[in-house]
């Protein structure tokens, strides 16, 4: 994912913890980070993927005005088609549920704005 121009270059980046296939998962980037990428690995035994976020922090900016989106996709078995139309909002994390019957996931994304100034908090 390209770096948002308004945030400048990332100060540091890291991989967050991996979820376990077949389970619910809630992950927010630590250290005031934003999701800059992700990776997954498929496990045939449970017909699911393990996910991991790549997070980056930008200077000492902090997220605020965060909210959780509706579920994507709307129903198990559908493709995800999400567009974030609001300028100045970024993905900070996600919550996901897994259906053992449908062998599929639904996602809710944590969307935040970022301060225009350096903040002093370690994790907001």
UniProtKB/TrEMBL annotation:
Primary subcellular site in the record, as a coarse category: secreted
Keyword match Disulfide bond: yes
Residue ranges of coiled coil: none
Swiss-Prot/TrEMBL GO biological process terms: collagen fibril organization
GO cellular component: extracellular matrix; extracellular space
Subcellular location: Secreted
Family: Belongs to the dermatopontin family.
Protein name stated in the entry: Dermatopontin
